[in-house]
Design goal:
This protein has 339 residues and is mainly α. It is built from 17 helices and no strands. The protein has one domain. Helix 6 packs antiparallel against helix 7 and helix 6 packs antiparallel against helix 11. The N and C termini lie far apart (43 Å).
Length: 339
């Protein structure tokens, strides 16, 4: 047995769950970070089309996976499929519509940093909402990690705003609209992980991969109808310079849609489901910071420039906040009452 595997298997169960859950959250963040650069690589493609196309690809990828997993999928009830449909509508289609539109209007870093507030928002909401199930972190336990994460986000955002002020071509109105759309994405993805964790924790015996595939299947008809509707609307409107269905760069467009459909949508959802089954929602919410770090890395690589000192300070604070969060363990309500 490899030494790393032996080390993990000999750990106490709660520590093993913490370590493996954190690694799955890291993997999810690395894949989800990819979706932030796609709108920058395809700036001429409307955000609505990007959202429908990404999840159309996700649904098509889920079809062969569903055939292989058909026995376990048959075990899902009607209410399970309705929940998968709700999660897909808000956490997939609506979220990525808001995010892609925000990135195309404000560039990559600002929406990335607004989305980066998710660890704080989810932790604050879930700490009270889910205390009966997960236990509760005292506010004094949460404050240091949340303060470090918030300070890191503020540093990176300050650096981006300073760069914007120095750009004479900057459109502040368009930039502000991008910020508002990013806030809409935050609202969608505050709701999604809480509801998704509810289902996963209530069905601990179900496979996270099966639930990821189920969400892909639920997304498919919505995305297909949306894609067809957009195509019809484009035809009725005269089409303009944008040619449906694949646009001006068909090979790049189709390749990117299937890449993020597989990596970010299916594999990312699978990894996040695995993390959600192992970690309290309050802690898992803070680990979404991995997505922010990955997205920033990819965005600066696409720019072909290194981040400045303030941005690096912000990244260091984000990492410190995550490490601090991992040291905190929730207390059950009885323990909180006795303390």
């Amino acid at each position: 047995m490899p030494r790393a595997a032996f080390f993990i298997t000999t750990m106490p169960p709660h520590r093993r769950a913490l370590l493996t859950g954190t690694l799955f959250a890291l993997a999810a963040g690395l894949t989800w970070g990819l979706v932030f650069i796609v709108p920058l690589l395809l700036p001429q493609y409307p955000a609505l089309l990007l959202s429908f196309s990404r999840y159309l690809a996700f649904g098509l990828i889920a079809l062969p996976l569903a055939w292989l997993d058909r026995a376990r999928l048959r075990g899902l009830t009607r209410s399970d499929w309705l929940e998968a449909l709700k999660l897909s509508s808000v956490g997939n289609l609506l979220y990525y519509l808001c995010l892609a539109a925000a990135i195309q209007r404000a560039g990559g870093p600002l929406p990335t940093m607004i989305i980066g507030t998710l660890p704080v928002v989810i932790a604050l909401v879930s700490n009270r909402r889910d205390q009966a199930r997960d236990g509760r972190l005292r506010w004094r336990q949460m404050l240091p990690s949340l303060a470090l994460i918030a300070a890191g986000i503020a540093c990176v955002n300050q650096a981006e705003l300073e760069q914007l002020r120095q750009d004479p071509r900057a459109d502040l109105g368009r930039y502000a609209m991008g910020a508002l759309l990013a806030l809409g994405a935050v609202a969608c993805w505050t709701w999604y992980p809480l509801r998704n964790a509810d289902w996963l924790r209530a069905h601990a015996g179900r496979s996270p991969s099966t639930w990821a595939t189920a969400q892909g299947l639920a997304t498919l008809p919505l995305a297909a109808v949306g894609f067809a509707g957009y195509w019809l609307w484009s035809a009725l409107a005269g089409g303009g310079p944008f040619r449906m269905p694949w646009g001006p760069e068909p090979a790049l467009f189709v390749g990117l849609m299937f890449s993020i459909g597989l990596l970010a949508s299916w594999l990312g959802t699978l990894c996040w489901n695995e993390a959600s089954q192992r970690l309290p929602t309050t802690l898992a919410g803070q680990l979404i910071v991995f997505e922010t770090l990955a997205a920033l890395t990819y965005a600066f690589a696409l720019r072909g420039q290194a981040p400045g000192p303030v941005t690096l300070l912000g990244v260091a604070l984000l990492v410190a906040g995550v490490i601090w969060a991992l040291r905190s363990r929730p207390q059950r309500p009885a323990a909180l009452h006795q303390a």
